[in-house]
Give the backbone structure.
Amino acid sequence: MVLSGKNALVTGAGSDGIGRAVALALAGAGADVALHYLDQTQAARALARDITDMGRRAVALPADLSSAAEARAMVTAADKAMGGLDILVHCAATLARVPFLDLDDAEWDRVHAVNLRGAFATAQEVARGMARRGAGGRIIMVSSVNQDHPTLHLAHYVASKGGVRMLARAMAIELAGQGITVNLIAPGTIETDLNRAALADDGFRKIKLGLIPTGHIGTPGDVAGAAVYLASDAARYVTGTTITVDGGLTL
């Protein structure tokens, strides 16, 4: 699973989460990496330095993916900076736990703007560049086990992730003829900046642990290996599928 000579874009790489772990893993496999972030400038630049210290190229690019225009502009900038993109790993997402009866239109729209429309705009723009170059590519959407399994107080989030799943599968069909594979990674409970505060509550953490057969919360590094596999030639005949990384949660 060697990625030497490949250029990757990883979204959501500014926080201490899956995006950061994926970026480091891709660089460790030999790829040069463009790093998207929202407002974590110092962390993104530090990550870029870590990657350059590994002997790889890196650039950090800010964008609010709730804006399709910003998402597309960020992809264009990444493509130009890297000299073309061979790999996209889309990790950026947001969530807030809100009971269904209290969920308002603004919160529904906010989550869908980032999680679904942002994923669409980013992936479409990357795919257009890959198609123009005619050398194929790898698109990996980091979704969630909630793409198939609902959970309390996350109706808006699970709906957006279900949309990401079907978006990726539709892309896989349409882009296969261009040599572009599209796959999903569905993490279970992974401790990141997105859920760290919730998991700090002992009661909530105990409930989550009780659902996981392996008996521990996952780390971002547990997801990164699946991304390296799907980005590599080892997965050249894999498209339209999901790798679930959940410690058996969905069993």
Summary: The chain has eight helices and seven strands. The helical segments are 18-28, 41-53, 68-82, 105-133, 155-175, 196-199, 202-210, 220-231. The chain has a mean pLDDT of 96. The first helix runs from residue 18 to 28.
